[in-house]
Design goal:
By secondary structure, the protein is of the alpha/beta class. It has a single domain (6-127), classed as 2,3-Dihydroxybiphenyl 1,2-Dioxygenase, domain 1. The chain is 20% helix and 39% strand. The protein is built from 3 helices and 7 strands, in the order βαβββαβββα. It has helices at 20-31, 81-90, 124-127, and strands at residues 6-17, 40-44, 51-58, 72-79, 99-101, 104-110, 116-122. A 7-stranded mixed beta sheet has the order 2-3-1-4-7-6-5. Strand 5 and strand 6 form a beta hairpin. It is globular.
Length: 128
């Protein structure tokens, strides 16, 4: 494990909803949040190229974890994803395989309460 294997901040928050499109419309109307068709909204950090995401998922989606017990999932921006996974393994936390996607590299773990957490190491194209 390298010294930089750590969480840098929150990359996003994902909410489960029985009607994600209606919830996106409410956020747009009530708070002025602009969603894409996913529905997801991105928020740029002032003075940086970093951003956070508010993503809305169907109530039955397992992406956020067990639909019966978890309605919110944190996405944590990390530095050195492999090192973070080693760190998690060293304390007995479960980890999932790394997925390489267009926005970077992702993996998942579960906290002591069984909440699924997404770990995101942005690609250089999305963090520069």
């Amino acid at each position: 494990m390298t010294a930089v294997a750590r969480v840098l901040g929150i990359g996003g928050v994902f909410l489960r909803s029985p009607d994600p499109e209606a919830l996106a419309a409410w956020y747009a109307l009530a708070l002025g949040v602009d969603f894409d068709a996913t529905p997801a909204a991105t928020f740029a950090s002032q003075g940086t190229d970093e951003y956070g995401v508010l993503g809305l998922f169907d109530a039955t989606s397992t992406y956020i974890g067990d639909p019966q017990r978890q309605s919110v999932m944190l996405n944590l921006r990390v530095e050195d994803l492999e090192g973070v996974l080693e760190r998690l393994s060293s304390v007995g936390a479960p980890t999932e395989d790394i997925a390489d996607e267009v926005y970077g590299r992702f993996s998942w773990t579960y906290d002591l309460d069984g909440n699924r957490i997404e770990l995101w190491e942005p690609s250089s194209a999305t963090s520069d």
